Amino acid sequence: MFASAFYLVGLGSYAGQVFLEAGIALPIDPAVPLGVAFGVGLTALSLFGTENTAALQNGIVIVLLVILTLFLSYGSLDALGVFGSERVPERFFPPGGLLPVLQTAALVFTSYLGFAQVATVAGDIKEPSRNLPLAMVGSVLLVGVFYVVTIFVATSAFGSSRLGEFGETAMVEVARAFVGLPGALVIVFAGLLATFSSANASILSASRAVYAVSRDDLIPAAASRINLRYGTPHVALGLAGGPIVVLTATGQVELLAEVASFLHLVMYGLICVALIQLRRESPEWYTPSFRCPAGFAVAGVGAAASFALIAFMRPASIGVGAVVMGAAYGWYRYSAAGVELKGAF
Q1: Helix and strand totals (H; E) in the chain
Q2: Is the distance from CB of 298 to CB of 292 less than 8 angstroms?
Q3: What is the CB neighbour count within 10 angstroms for residue 146?
Q4: Which of 53, 108, 75 is nearest to 253 (CA)?
Q5: Rounded distance between C-alpha atoms, residue 183 and residue 153, angstroms
């Protein structure tokens, strides 16, 4: 939910950039109002069936990948001196050393949450034993390559200090430096697609998580009701979409991003620990159709890295995340006791 709100504020920022490029001056920053409006709209869209959401998502991703491939290819050739004088990119570690890199990694980790969302909607995936690992591994590799090339192109054009002055829509200015207004407009459109896609997937994922815990009797059964016309968990969508819209209205971009990153880092670390424990116990029901090579080593490094990165977050973000975890654990203990009591009768 925190990640969804973060994406929606970004979507509002790019939508507001459209007005700026059109020369329309707005009296207020439109990022938050537009983000809230998009949050309500995307929640409503998800009510009309997963197929519609999936078709929209596929179309957006294809168009976005084409735009990014063309833009980054041009930017890389420009940085290498093919179109003009060669531009030397900024060195990997900034003047502050490794610490700023780790702090930034902790902040932007929320941008890598897509592969967890794949697992969350596993119930809607065809041939999950084949497509689930392909989608998760493929998404990490693809996004990683695009991010590295994007940083190379952006720092070749301006450098990190100047990019920081541009704010959330810095890549628009990079494109403007390359090909002028047409480039800026194309990247504004790509930014809209990217943040729209992320928000759309996150809202769908959050609603499916609410639906799943309701099916497990951890929250009231009403949350797992299915709309008979569209086959979607409309109550779960409302329970997810409502808090997402409220969080978006706060407009706290960095706090939303870091809290989302904190909660997911904890989750990923615990997933790695769980994998080690499952491999050690090897219960009869644990028969995965795919294997993780060097599972203990991979899971051990993954757990250590996930928990260690939390140390580079701001205390406020850790505090908010800890409160969310504490409330969730308290509710879990309460609901688990209720389930045991119901089972006793």
Answers
A1: 13, 0
A2: yes
A3: 15
A4: 108
A5: 14
First-last CA distance in the chain = 36
| Structural domain containing residue 15 | 2-344
Instruction: Dump pLDDT digits (tens) for 147-165.
Output: 889 888 888 888 777 887 8
Measure the CA–CA gap between 106 and 100, rounded to whole angstroms.
Answer: 10
How buried is residue 179: exposed, middle or buried, by Cβ count under 10 Å (0-12/13-18/19+)?
middle
Q: What is the pLDDT of residue 127?
A: 84
Chain CA centroid to CA 118, Å: 11
Tokens read off for 270: 């615990």
- 300 by Cβ neighbours in 10 Å (0-12 / 13-18 / 19+) ranks as middle
In the chain, the number of structural domains is 1
Using the Cα atoms of residue 175, residue 180, residue 186 and residue 192 in order, give the sign of their dihedral.
positive
Q: How confident is the model at residue 249 (pLDDT cuts 50, 70, 90)?
A: very high
Residues 6+ apart with CB under 8 A from 345: none
Of 250, 296, 239, nearest to 273 by C-alpha is 296
CA–CA–CA angle 190, 60, 243 (5° rounding) = 90
Contact 247/199 with Cβ under 8 angstroms? no
Q: Please report, for the domain that includes residue 20, its CATH number.
A: 1.20.1740.10
